Amino acid sequence: MTRISLQASALTTTLLSCLLLPTRALPAESPTIEQPQPPAGAPNVVVVILDDVGFGAASTFGGPVDTPALEALAGEGLRYNRFHTTAICSPTRAALLTGRDAHTANVGTVLNTANAYPGYQGILNPQTATIAEVLRQRGSNTAAVGKWHLTPSWESSQAGPFDRWPTGVGFEKFYGFLGGETDQFNPTLYEGTRPVFRPEGEDYHFTEDMARAAIEWLQMQHSLAPGRPFFLYFATGATHAPLQVPENWVARYQGRFDQGWDAMREAIFARQRRLGVIPEDTRLTPRPAEIPAWDSLDREQRRVASRLMETFAGFLAHTDAQVGVLIRHLRDSGQFDNTLIFYVVGDNGSSAEGGLHGSINYMGALQGLREPLEARLAKLDAIGGEETYPQYPAGWAWALTAPFQWVKQVASHLGGTRNPLVVSWPLGIPEKGGLRSQFSHVNDIAPTILDAAGITLPDVVNGATQLPMEGASLLPSFASSNASEHHPTQYFEVYGNRAIYHRGWMAAARHDRLPWTVGPGRRETSFDDDLWELYNLEVDFSQAYNLAAEHPEKLATLQALFEREASRRNMLPLRSAADIRTPMPSLSRGRERFTYYPGLVGLPESQAPAMANRSWTLLAELDLAADGSGRGVIATVGGTAAGWSLYLDDSQRPVFEYRAFEVEHLKLRGANPLRAGIQTVKVVFDYQGPGYAKGARISLRVNGDTVARGLIAASPPAFFSIDETFDIGVDTGSPAGDYPVDAPLGYALQGLSLKQVDVQLH
Q1: pLDDT digit string (tens) for 249-279?
Q2: How far is 156 from 158, CA to CA, in rounded Å?
Q3: How far does CA 585 lie from the centroid of its chain?
């Protein structure tokens, strides 16, 4: 017998003897390990929240876009026509998930414009624990799928920390993207805290992938813990730009909007009155003077505008269809009746961020690099596909907020803050197809969930004493349309646009920033110059009749109330977060030299070397195999909309590709393949400043010799993208380079080893 077998035999004998030895009898009442138990009968919860959808977009609320899943839920549950968001993305999500006001949660502005002032830092307040964390600690399974936009950029890399990622604030499962938007065909994806590629396949779309991931998780949860309730947060990237959707969905709406935004808004208004989602005596508010009348556009401008609106409509309809897939699973699995579903149609009003004329690459337009009309016409039939990054004109955004004034960002007026809400819970809502008109806010959702589950907010969560929830439960309104108003007071503030609601009255002041103003060069005006308006919403549903002159005492009382609310949340003195720049934590600030190694992926562009408006060099050291198989991405930032990529093509030739939206696209390629052994590849970016967004002379060098050079006339003044990343050795998200047609997702390096990549700023 060998030594190994002898040892194994001895081990087996020892284990058996342990198992067979007599044991001391257990006491009658032995200790147990307690697990958190949800209250008996607690419902499952699903929160669906769409992005950038106005009050008048969905057919369920009179809009031109078919939303059968929303309509089916509304027919079995309730529609809320006086439900409000914060007017912009991150604050709405913070308020929804915490049950507090956005400034209390320390997310008073969208994370992209966060600053160091309290209330605006974009760092979730530990004293405002999420509803996911509360439910998890009471025995629910929790998952977030889709858009997040609540993790600071300096914490969004693989360096962590991860305590403010979804899995750090209560969600056991996360599958989605971290930033404000993503390419819908090639998203920047994370599974938990790990960057991942989208599933393979030519017919991929992120919203469809969301439904798949959510259902897989639900099936797993139902298999392993069928008696345990779940909380699913299903947050789509749609219909935030880029408006991207399969062409067959766009085709459904071809020609449907040729009448223009003025006529469409009138038609929406008429349907809203017919459906009863607005009172019969509601007034349709007029078009802002800055938005051109449809009839003032020429034929070509109308063609582009119509196609962009068709794309939006297809995008929204496609999104609702994927929500329908999710709902169908709940029905088929027998879980629908005891599932409390909130379908929030938009985290703010419609977005006018495409500017007055719209764009096929709005990231450039946001920074003042607008493409000419000819470029839009050349890609007219491709709008909505992988080659474009579009957003529709502001006129459509205004039309889709009917009957209200203004749009996204304008927290002073209902066009920015009034969104449709549908609630379904067959076991908990006796009325089917009812309408509710109690004033409500997105911060009401979390307390409603706790109320429905029979859970009291703990005094302490994870060691942090909890602030009370500022929202109030909607549960009484589930039982009766005549339930008393549960939410008597609510403030609003985004970018200095502000309002206060109190018992039917609203005082509002719009600040100077127009929501469709894009690009640099704007100067902020004094808050003292803002004109306050006054509305009686009990009799004026659309906020159409300014009563400031008739009731100055009422206006003064509400202004004083706003000041008290603002002071309590550290908003004073007032500042527009869009115009405040304070030093924020950074992984790159103060550095001019960087060394990166293989494996670096998913570094947010904002935390990468600050390469805009300056010269820089990038040097990569490669060791190539002798078989000529070297190919793949060396370093890259950005994606299809804009960015750059240094890579080897399928012939082992070096390529540097640079794209500044629809303004510049330069490709430099070496004529010869790289030789085997140690090789250096260098990019020299010689900025032609001073100033912002200037051009550059670019050269591509191999072992010190220039193999290609070129000139660009413009570059991004601030950033290539919002959600794309800086990567070494692979390209995550959408491709920044024109890689070989048979290249795998990410076009990872192969056939060579990469020692390091050095970046030097000049």
Answers
A1: 999 999 999 999 999 999 999 999 999 999 9
A2: 7
A3: 22
**Structure confidence by residue, pLDDT tens digits, 224-245:** 999 999 999 999 999 999 999 9
Range of the domain at 168: 44-253+267-280+296-483
Q: Are residue 356 and residue 409 in the same domain, yes or no? A: yes
Tell me, yes or no, whether 536 and 650 share the same domain.
no
Residues 525 and 473 both lie in one domain: no
Provide the mean pLDDT of the chain: 94
Exposure of 331 in the CB half-sphere (CA atoms within 13 A): 11
Instruction: State CA 345 to chain mean position distance.
Output: 14
Dihedral angle, C-alpha 23, 27, 29, 35, nearest 10 °: -30
For residues 573 and 597, state if they share a domain: no
Domain of 216, CATH number, reads 3.40.720.10
What DSSP state is assigned to residue 631? B
Note the pLDDT of residue 591.
95
Token reading at 738? 């024109």
Look at residue 99 and tell me if it is in a domain: yes
**One domain for residues 397 and 542:** no
CA triple 337-338-339, angle to 5 deg: 95
Report residue 17's pLDDT band, with 50, 70 and 90 as the boundaries.
very low
Q: Examine the domain organization and report whether 136 and 238 are in the same domain.
A: yes
Asked, for residue 163, whether it belongs to a domain, the answer is yes
Task: Give residue-wise pLDDT tens across range 125-152.
Answer: 999 999 999 999 999 999 999 999 999 9
DSSP 308-376: HHHHHHHHHHHHHHHHHHHHHHHHHTT-STTEEEEEE--SSS---TT-SS-BSBHHHHHTT-PPPHHHH
**Phi and psi angles of residue 679, each rounded to the nearest 5 degrees, phi first:** -135, 145
Judge if pTM exceeds 0.70.
yes
Q: Tell whether 688 and 564 lie within a shared domain.
A: no
Name the H helices within 121-245. 131-137, 206-224
Are 118 and 108 spatial neighbours (Cβ–Cβ below 8 Å)?
no
Q: Kindly indicate the confidence band of residue 525, based on its pLDDT and cuts at 50, 70 and 90.
A: confident
Do strands 230-235 and 141-147 pair parallel, antiparallel, or not at all (unpaired)?
parallel
Cβ(355)–Cβ(393) under 8 Å?
yes
For the beta carbon of residue 18, count every other beta carbon within 10 angstroms: 8
Which one-letter amino acid corresponds to residue 346? G
CA distance to 54, 714, 741, per residue, from 61 (Å): 10, 44, 44
Report d(CA 188, CA 178) in Å as an integer.
Answer: 8
Number of domains in the chain: 3
CA distance 100 to 131: 11
One domain, residues 467 and 571: no
CA distance linking residue 330 with residue 335, whole number of Å: 5
Sign of CA dihedral 637, 639, 644, 646: positive
Q: Give the residue from 70, 96, 75 showing the smallest Cα distance to 84.
A: 96
- Per the CB < 8 A criterion, the answer to whether 543 and 506 are in contact is yes
Task: Report if residue 291 sits inside a domain.
Answer: no
- Which residues make beta-bridge pairs with 112? none
Confidence of residue 25 (pLDDT cuts 50, 70, 90): low
